[in-house]
Design brief:
This protein has 407 residues and is an all-alpha fold. It is built from 16 helices and no strands. The radius of gyration is 23 Å and the shape is globular.
Length: 407
């Protein structure tokens, strides 16, 4: 048409790219990157101090078997903390669920799976009990779970009649100490372990690529491409090196498969589900969450049901590894789980934290404990060091908030 001007089609704005400088990129996301840097430093430090013993195939396998229950508890504790609560009863729940399983399997000669199912059922009931008082009665979680810590510890003594029960049948102990039989064979190593690790690396890379593409589509900030590729390469190297050591020991632990399934499931739940977003909303701003239509009572209820379930899973794993149930089992486990969540980047005030961060935090605690044991450090000094690590982690969270202008 005469007099009209043609207009070019509008171009979608490109996604904003973060700094390509690794140090600057880490400083921009200090809360998340700090724990990974600390983990690498601690691993290398103990590798030097122990002349490589801490990175030997047998010791790495031992760390997985010995601290798996802490990582299971840390998943549930992270969700509780993100929502702005705390759970002091998980150690007692671990003891009680293990005791009930022992009474059924050892005391009453029931099949091993009956003990496992009974323990999980009791964990769900305990979670519902505590969730009711927190969500619907309105008693603070600190008080409810403190009472639960005493209540469930007393029930453990009652169920066990103040004595230990052992041993479990071989099928039960395989839950925490068994290994997947070699499927592909291998010359001095388990090829199946390497295959699973390679599959996990490819799945992680595919997930990261999809996430990056989605962020680009919606013009969100993404890291520079060289840093993105570097991250994938580093993760692949660490995972394959870890799998290589496992493959040269006893292969793939069954408990590691259980843990991997839980980590993947809860990572998706917290990142992509409605429930996960509601948990973050409640912990970030309770009033805003209520005004936006979040059913805070029911979300809080299911948070504690989930914590009870995961505590029962940890109870089965711990009793399986211990090959029995003891009245004193689970002492201070809640402190290990809380430490893992906070060291892994969870905020003291709630609303912040990721499952993978809690896992790194739990592994960091495990590596420190294992390294000090290899060096023969006195038990009392180990407790002092672990306490200082927790204190520094929380201080780091406070510093990070002030650095970002949050008081």
């Amino acid at each position: 048409m005469s007099g009209s001007t043609a207009t070019a089609p509008k171009q979608a704005p490109a996604a904003r790219t973060g700094s390509a400088n690794p140090l600057k990129a880490m400083s921009q996301n200090l809360r998340e990157s700090g724990i990974y840097v600390a983990f690498v430093v601690v691993v290398l430090l103990f590798a030097v101090l122990t002349d490589g013993l801490s990175l030997s195939p047998g010791n790495i396998t031992n760390i997985v078997l010995q601290y798996s229950y802490v990582l299971v508890l840390a998943i549930g504790m992270l969700i509780v903390i993100v929502a702005g609560h705390i759970d002091l009863s998980v150690g007692s729940v671990v003891a009680l669920t293990g005791a009930i399983s022992a009474q059924l399997v050892i005391g009453s000669s029931q099949p091993w799976y009956v003990g496992v199912l009974a323990a999980l059922g009791v964990g769900l009931v305990i979670g519902a009990w505590q969730g009711f008082w927190v969500a619907f009665v309105g008693i603070p979680a600190f008080i409810v779970t403190l009472a639960g810590m005493l209540l469930f510890r007393g029930l453990t003594f009652y169920v066990l009649d103040n004595v230990s029960l052992s041993p479990f049948p071989a099928q039960y102990t395989k839950v925490a100490t068994g290994f997947v039989p070699p499927i592909f064979g291998g010359y001095g190593y388990d090829a199946f372990t390497l295959f699973i690790a390679a599959f996990a690396v490819l799945a992680f890379a595919a997930s990261q690529v999809r996430t990056r593409i989605a962020k680009v589509r919606y013009q969100q900030v993404v890291e520079a491409l060289p840093l993105f590729v570097l991250k994938l390469v580093l993760v692949a190297l660490v995972v394959m090196a870890f799998a290589w050591q496992l493959a040269h020991s006893r292969g793939l632990p069954i408990v590691l498969i259980i843990l991997a399934v839980l980590i993947l499931t809860y990572s998706v739940v917290m990142r992509s589900s409605v429930f996960g977003r509601q948990v973050y909303a409640i912990g970030g701003n309770l009033s805003a969450a209520m005004l936006s239509g979040v059913n805070v009572r029911w979300v809080n209820f299911w948070i504690f049901v989930n914590m009870g379930f995961l505590a029962a899973v940890a109870g089965v794993i711990f009793s399986s590894r211990s090959n029995g149930a003891q009245p004193s089992a689970g002492n201070s486990f809640e402190l290990d789980a809380i430490a893992a969540a906070f060291i892994g980047g969870a905020a003291v005030t709630g609303g912040v934290g990721k499952v993978q961060g809690a896992m790194i935090g739990g592994l960091l605690v495990g590596v420190i404990s294992n390294g000090m044991q290899l060096l023969g450090v006195d038990q009392s000094l180990q407790q002092v060091i672990k306490g200082l690590v927790l204190l520094l982690a929380v201080a780091f969270d406070v510093f990070n908030k002030r650095r970002g202008g949050v008081r």
